[in-house]
Amino acid sequence: MLALERLADGVASPAAESLRDRVVLVTGATGGLGRATALAAAAAGATLVLLGRKVRALEGVYDEIEKSGALTPALYPMDLAGATPKDYADLAAAVMRECGRLDGIVHAAAQFDTLQPFEQQTPEEWNRTQQVNVTAPFLLTQACLPLLRRADDAAIVFVFDDVARIGNAFWGGYGVAKHALLGLASIVHEETESSSVRTHAILPGPMRTALRRAAYYGEDTLAHPDPAHAARAIAWLLGAGASGVRGKVLDLRG
């Protein structure tokens, strides 16, 4: 089981070049946290594979990274809601063919529609939410694990939500999915604990993201910090410096 850990502010930040010579795959790379994570990992020297649903949005993140002077990322458009096991196998093969290695995965993609009574959630909404939030991390990790095991040190980073909050009324399929993701991450950790593959997770605090706006209609989302702080923590977890906190959930809720 993953253990919760809170580090002093500023401890979980990547050193310059700490991800040099590492290839990192970021899902949801055009979303609030995914984009910020891509920028933070690029700044730390990583070669990135950016996975997202919309090509033009991916190209926007590509341009930001390229303008920063970091290593040129690779783009991999994929709709996680409809992806099949073969799609993930093809992705793993493409990463190996084009990059020659894989040293980290960040599961930053998330699917959340709105708060609503579970009686009103359609089967299509339910299935899409489970597919993106749980099934995609399972299939992607499974497909890429052989690549990760080749590395001397590799990391898988899951993004959690506060289960005490999302287990309440109206969180529907998203709440169920995030509870299931905690179980999946714990199992992956237990099964890789003695290997070169580290399993981590983060529990961000409120962030200035589209998901936050969708869940809290009357709130001034701009009052919250942007996702850069959480992104720096993720970039730190991807590096060798975080080996001492493998199997931990980094609590960033302040």
TrEMBL record:
Keyword presence, Oxidoreductase: yes
Coiled-coil region list: none
Gene3D superfamilies: NAD(P)-binding Rossmann-like Domain
Top-level taxon in the UniProt lineage: Bacteria
Keyword annotations of the record: Oxidoreductase
Keyword Oxidoreductase part of the UniProt annotation: yes
This protein's name: SDR family NAD(P)-dependent oxidoreductase
